[in-house]
């Protein structure tokens, strides 16, 4: 064979081999994963239900993956700082991001450094649950219909507390007012504790609060549970109706926790994490932890979680735009 032609064939063969090796490199890396500790970013400070659920998830992954899953708290800007760090990490499975429902609110309130739908890899939705509407005993209402009637009789006369301007509890209230055709006066607080303390004291007569902190106060008679924002009643107290079944059809605001990775995370790694965490959600420890916070296990596929995120982002964009909400 002509030496020049032979050399050319060898060059083509070498190029093909190199291309094939490049193609299979991510697959080989995914098959060897995990070969070292994994970082899980929780984009909020330590403490609280979110941190506890995130740490429990990390603990269970440590046990099932055979490598330490190390939690790193990176709070700030409503969770955007830590989340952006996670989404900019190498898509090799060694940086994961624990996410909460406020992730879907942030695109409407902050300028993000990444596309919140296209530049992520959803892995699994871990939980789902509601916000609880609860009233001070002095407020003469026992149901959503009573609340609507009172608010229509006295526009702006009902004050309600939330965990802050632009938070999900605030958006939940704005969505309720929009669908019910009423106006109430927003009293924002910096966190759940102060919001509930002033509602219990009667300085504010209504609250949109998380179930974990608000339901015990209702059980103790310090507040009156009116309704939950989710589409289904909660297992922790099925006597509390949903807003949708109480006169505001179509209303639904869902809180959730989930796990994300950066775009390009190899599918074998995504499937491994999804499978391990779906099994974890069936464990007694995780079920009790979630139910103790007024949540329930979600699970499901990465695609279903991605659909939930996209749907929520669009919902919150509409609410923020209609109400003219801006961060403080």
Give the gist of this structure.
This protein has helices at residues 3-32, 48-65, 80-87, 106-109, 144-153, 168-180, 192-200, 211-219, 267-280, 284-292, 302-323; strands at residues 38-42, 69-73, 95-100, 120-125, 127-128, 131-135, 159-162, 185-188, 206-210, 224-228, 257-262, 296-297. It is α/β, with parallel strands linked by helices and 328 residues long. The chain folds into two domains: 37-129 and 254-323, D-Maltodextrin-Binding Protein, domain 2; 131-246, 3-Layer(aba) Sandwich (D-Maltodextrin-Binding Protein, domain 2).
Structure, described:
With 328 residues, the chain is α/β, with parallel strands linked by helices. The chain folds into 2 domains: 37-129 and 254-323, D-Maltodextrin-Binding Protein, domain 2, CATH 3.40.190.150; 131-246, 3-Layer(aba) Sandwich (D-Maltodextrin-Binding Protein, domain 2), CATH 3.40.190.10. It has helices at residues 3-32, 48-65, 80-87, 106-109, 144-153, 168-180, 192-200, 211-219, 267-280, 284-292, 302-323, and strands at residues 38-42, 69-73, 95-100, 120-125, 127-128, 131-135, 159-162, 185-188, 206-210, 224-228, 257-262, 296-297. Strand 1, helix 2 and strand 2 (69-73) form a beta-alpha-beta unit. Helix 2 crosses helix 9. The longest helix has 30 residues, at 3-32. The radius of gyration is 24 Å and the shape is globular. The N and C termini lie far apart (77 Å). The mean pLDDT is 92.
Features:
328 residues; alpha/beta; D-Maltodextrin-Binding Protein, domain 2; 2 domains; 5-stranded mixed beta sheet; 11 helices; 45% helix
């Amino acid at each position: 064979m002509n030496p020049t032609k032979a050399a050319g064939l060898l060059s083509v063969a070498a190029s093909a081999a190199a291309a094939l090796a490049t193609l299979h490199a991510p697959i080989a890396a995914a098959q060897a994963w995990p070969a070292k500790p994994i970082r899980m970013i929780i984009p909020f400070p330590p403490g609280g239900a979110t941190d506890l659920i995130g740490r429990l998830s990390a603990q269970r992954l440590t046990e099932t993956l055979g490598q330490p899953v190390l939690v790193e708290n990176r709070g700030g800007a409503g969770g955007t700082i830590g989340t952006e760090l996670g989404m900019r990490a190498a898509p090799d499975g060694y940086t994961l991001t624990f996410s909460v429902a406020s992730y879907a609110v942030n695109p409407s309130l902050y300028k993000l450094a990444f596309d919140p739908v296209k530049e992520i890899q959803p892995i699994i939705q871990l939980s789902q649950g509601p916000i609880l509407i609860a009233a001070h005993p002095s407020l003469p209402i026992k149901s959503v219909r009573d609340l609507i009637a009172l608010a229509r009789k006295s526009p702006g006369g009902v004050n309600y507390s939330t965990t802050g301007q632009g938070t999900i509890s605030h958006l939940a209230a704005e969505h309720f007012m929009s669908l019910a055709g009423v106006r109430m006066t927003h009293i924002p607080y910096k966190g759940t504790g102060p919001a509930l303390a002033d509602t219990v004291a009667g300085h504010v007569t209504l609250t949109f609060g998380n179930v974990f902190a608000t339901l015990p106060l209702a059980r103790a008679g310090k507040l009156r549970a009116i309704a939950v924002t989710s589409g289904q009643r909660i297992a922790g107290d099925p006597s509390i109706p949903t807003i949708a079944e109480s006169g505001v059809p179509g209303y639904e605001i869902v809180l959730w926790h989930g796990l994300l990775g950066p775009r390009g995370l190899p599918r074998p790694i995504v499937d491994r994490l999804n499978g391990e965490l779906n099994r974890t959600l069936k464990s007694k420890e995780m079920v009790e932890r979630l139910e103790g916070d007024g949540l329930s296990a979600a699970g499901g596929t990465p695609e279903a979680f991605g659909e939930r995120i996209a749907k929520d982002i669009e919902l919150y964009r509409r609410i923020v735009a209609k109400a003219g909400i801006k961060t403080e």
